[in-house]
Write the structure tokens for this entry.
Amino acid sequence: MKKIAFSMESIRKQLRRYAPPIYVVKQTVGEDGVDGRIVSYVDKMSHIAEQYKVLRTNLISLSPVKPVSTIVITSSHAWEGKTVTSCNLAVTLSLDKEKKTLLVDADLRKPGVHSMFGLSREPGFSDVLSDFIGVEKFLAKPAIENLYVIPAGSLVDDPSELLSLGKVETLLNRLKSEFDYIILDTPPVLEFTDASILGSFCDAVILAIKAGSTQKEAIEEAFNLLEEAKAKPKACILTNVQVALDAHYYFYKYKSAAPAGKR
Ligand SMILES: Nc1ncnc2c1ncn2[C@@H]1O[C@H](COP(=O)(O)OP(=O)(O)OP(=O)(O)O)[C@@H](O)[C@H]1O
Ligand SMILES: [Mg+2]
């Protein structure tokens, strides 16, 4: 029987401490190609964008001495909010103009980052792994200032095999020398080994948990698989949470959005 390294109580504590409830509603595409679900860009003053800032602060405070710079986003199963979380977190980190942020679509099975920013899927991550010369030519530039993206790239038959060839660590080290934050969107950890492999080379793994859907056994299993692979599951993020906002919130938002002289 598999060892349960994380009790539900410790996961609940993590959720209370690190997981801001985040609910995304819009699915439109702007003129600059950016998907409306990237709320951190399209609705910067919103309650949701604020929650991503909370996530950023929590991540930075995880290890003040040696700040996390490479972060894998995964989930237990498919469709639990990995891509939306990866994009919003990357945009939020890119708000710090003194740091350089890179978002990598390392989900070579169901790549989605390129369409969130209106970019082409190729060339990208799978291509970089077979050609180290000039990472620059694989970097895509979305409409968002100070953010760089490496899309998924050409489709490959066996992504786990490609990730196991030992090139990932070399590539990540190279990227780390150029970027302060690197976010990697990955496939679900209970279905593929990709997130565990990538997580073992990164500083932290964040597990997206879909409210009302992800089962606690799946969360435990995901944590265990990551730990066994020497990945570092550091935090959870709760997606699909429906929050009832009271009048105070609307007043507060109005106040923040008003011109300085009229407050
Ligand atoms: N925080 C959120 N709150 C509510 N809905 C969300 C949230 N994040 C994502 N969603 C919605 O959930 C669905 C899945 O999101 P997303 O594509 O990010 O998941 P995923 O885990 O990357 O899926 P896949 O496993 O297919 O790659 C989408 O319809 C998206 O709009
Ligand atoms: Mg996805």
Summary: The chain has one domain: 22-246. The pocket of adenosine-5'-triphosphate (ligand 1) is lined by residues 22-24, 27, 37, 75, 78-84, 107, 110, 112, 188, 239-240 (CB under 6 Å). Residues 47-62 form the longest helix (16 residues).
